[in-house]
Structures are given as C-alpha cells and as structure tokens.
Amino acid sequence: IAHIYCEDVFAIMGENFTFPVKVDQELVESTWKKNKDKVAEREGLNEPTYFGPLRNRGVLMENGSLTIVNLEKDDAGAYELQYWDSVKDHYLNFVLVVLDPPPEPKISCNTSDHKLVLNCAADFQGPLNYAWKLSNNTQGYQKEFSIPLEDVDTTANATCIIKLSQTERSSEISLFQCLP
C-alpha cells in the first residue's frame, strides 16, 4: 500500500520556490514529475539529473525537496515526488499555483469616533500579510489601523506594507491629508 499525500502550494512569479517536503528518512532514490513528465531525479549519492524546463532552474536536495529558481507561469501544474527509502515507494503530490506579484496597496482614510482610521487594500487573489508603519515604528498587522485623533502627528506618514512569500509592496500616505 502506497501512502498518497496531496497539497496545494502557492508561489509568486520570479521568486525561487521550494516544495515543502518533510521526509525524515534517508532517500535511496527520488524522482520528481510534473504533469506525469519526469523533471528531476537522484539515485543514491549521485548528482541529480534534470529534464525539460528545470534543466537550468532546478535544485534537488538529498532530502527530496525540489527548488525551482526564478518561477515562471509555465511552472504551474501537478507535481509528484516518488521516493524509495529501501523498503517501499512513497508518493507526495503537490499542485503548484504560480501567481503574479501583488500590486501596490491602496490606502484610504477617514475619521470616526474621535479616531483616524486608515485602511489598506490590495486587489489580489491570494492571502496577504499586512503591516503598518508610523514614523518607522511597526504598529499593527491587519488591514485596518486606527489612531486617536489627539495622538495624530500631522507631520508623520503612515506606510502600509503587504507581504506574500518573499515579495513585499508598500504605499505611504501623509496623516495631514487624512484629517478633515
């Protein structure tokens, strides 16, 4: 009986991406396939062999993990790691989705309940991490951030930072332009 495992993974075009392989035994043999075509293999301690589009962009590690350098849209697809640990074959399946980098976030602001409310939004199809910086101090990790009106420094700027994987984008707004 073979153990089959499947995981959807997301990556950003242009980044380096490593499949999250967690294998705690020594691999005798490992083979990676993309949409049923072999893209990388290693036998024992021999140097890995790469095929097709990964010939100059693949890095196969001894633990079976595969890194694709400088991701392209065409790298998206179904990947399978088949490895043999000298006892039996194992299969790990991944569906790689390659996304465009996120756009710069847009900041909007208004006042409500004696507070200045800043909102950060980015038109993006995946989950993003948000952070706010006010005068070089990180303030919060959510899309919305508020400051009591009496604490607003009108000379300060607020920066919204969005992050996904290794890609970061930011926008800045002057707090002065947010006040009524």
Task: Write up this protein.
Keywords: Glycoprotein, Membrane, Signal. It is found in: Membrane. InterPro entries: CD2/SLAM_rcpt, Ig-like_dom_sf, Ig-like_fold. The protein is mainly beta. The chain folds into 2 domains: 6-99, Immunoglobulin-like, CATH 2.60.40.10; 106-178, Immunoglobulin-like (Sandwich). 0% of the residues lie in helices and 53% in strands. It has no helices and 16 strands. The chain has strands spanning 4-12, 17-18, 29-34, 37-43, 49-50, 58-60, 66-68, 77-84, 89-99, 106-112, 115-121, 129-134, 137-140, 144-148, 157-164, 167-174. The strands form 4 sheets. The chain has a 6-stranded mixed β-sheet with strand order 1-9-8-3-4-5, with no helix packed on it. A 4-stranded antiparallel β-sheet has the order 13-12-15-16, with no helix packed on it. It has a 3-stranded antiparallel β-sheet with strand order 2-7-6, with no helix packed on it. A hairpin with a 5-residue loop joins strand 4 and strand 5 (49-50). The protein is elongated, with a radius of gyration of 23 Å.
Shape: elongated
CATH superfamily of the largest domain: Immunoglobulins
Low-confidence stretches: none
Give Rg in angstroms. Answer: 23 Å
Instruction: Quote the distance from N terminus to C terminus.
Output: 68 Å
Count all strands and give the number.
16
CATH architecture title of the largest domain: Sandwich
- The number of domains is 2
Strand content: over 45%
Give me the CATH fold name of the largest domain. Immunoglobulin-like
Mean pLDDT: 91
Q: What letter string, H or E per element, gives the SSE order? A: EEEEEEEEEEEEEEEE
Specify the structural class.
mainly beta
Strand arrangement within the widest β-sheet reads 1-9-8-3-4-5
What's the story with the biggest beta sheet? 6 strands, mixed
The count of helical stretches stands at 0
Text of the CATH class of the largest domain: Mainly Beta
What is the helix fraction of residues, given as a range?
under 10%
